[in-house]
Amino acid sequence: MTDGWNWRRPPTASSVPGGHEPPPSGSPWWTDALQDPWRDPRAPAAVVLPPPPPSGGPALDPVPDPDARGRSYAPVLLICLLTALLAGGIGGTLGFVFAVRGGYVGNVGAPLGAGGQQTPQSVDRAPESLAGVAQRVQPSVVTVHVTGAIGSGFVVSADGYVITNDHVVDGAGESMSVSFSDGSTAGAKLVGRAPESDIAVIKVAKSGLPAVQFGDSDTIAVGDSVLAFGSPLALENTVTYGIVSALDRTIEAGESGGTTRYYAAIQTDAAVNQGNSGGPLVDAGGRVIGVNSVIRSVGGNETEAGNIGLAFAIPINQAKRIAQDIVDTGKARRTVIGAEVSSGGSGSGGAKLRSVEPAGPAAAAGLKAGDVLTKLDGHPLQDGTDLIALVRKHAPGATVAVEYRRGAKNSSASVTLASVTN
Fold this sequence. Notes:
The chain has helices at 74-101, 130-137, 166-169, 316-329, 361-364, 384-393, and strands at 141-146, 149-155, 161-164, 175-179, 185-194, 199-204, 213-214, 225-230, 238-253, 261-268, 280-283, 287-295, 311-315, 333-336, 339-341, 351-356, 372-376, 379-380, 399-406, 409-416, 418-421.
């Protein structure tokens, strides 16, 4: 018995052992059927030959499968048809429901556009959603164009006042321009600056502008959702999302030989890059809680700096107070404690006072040169940067509690902060 891969011509009668004659020509059976060791011994030995084909040539119909039973395919086809209709109906219904819930259904009855495609329609989002917040805030955000540079800002009054960073307008002169999210542009003029607080105010030559809504930066918490608006890397109308990563993160920044700026900042992991400076950081309700100002980067220089998930914003309560001073008087007040601190740490934590002004707030509270302040208003102090940044966060006239160390003795006092004008 063979599977066909090594087929040979059947032997002749003279070569078959036992002398059996081969079957007639055209037999479909092998020649040694009676000697086949795998033959069923109970099966008859008769060989039945098929009838000869009718005259006119062999039949072209395929040979029917001898094992196949006669059956009707109508029930199978009916089941397949019903299954396909049911699956299509369910899929279409679910797709429509998900589209409606996701807000993707526009004007269903709108006429078709070119090519048989429905004309795209603007879609609305729930006001409390992130997309709804972005739609509401974006018209109040501007891109600030100065000579050779781009920054960001946001409208705070209908008559055109805009808050931005001082380092955005540094060297810009008296005039500049801004562009809005709708593509329109307008000229702008510098109103005033607070270099050490990194806040500036400009006035746009346009009225009837949509102003932002202010939040309260003293009530936010780590983990709150935030959106950062601006023009990072000159990509206007950009919105990024993140959370508040830390509060009162004290930072000392500035170029060598230039103004040194101190921040008690809101830290966020929202993506912020060059060009975001001066743009608003808003909470999940669309209220501005900070001014994007600084990033921390692993880049070796300013041109290589990029977002690594560490960005910092000036609290809006501080920025709003300084901006109001600028609008009212053209200048800003800076909050002080009436003492100078030693550079670097004190060796055991705290901000060491190098000198105390005789008539200043620190002296009035009983503090002396050499005292090491360890806490201000409950916030631990590690060095002089912490003290300066946290003092400037408070408004002039605020009374804060301080804890300090004098020699081996720990004491506390209340200090009423004062101000100087930049």
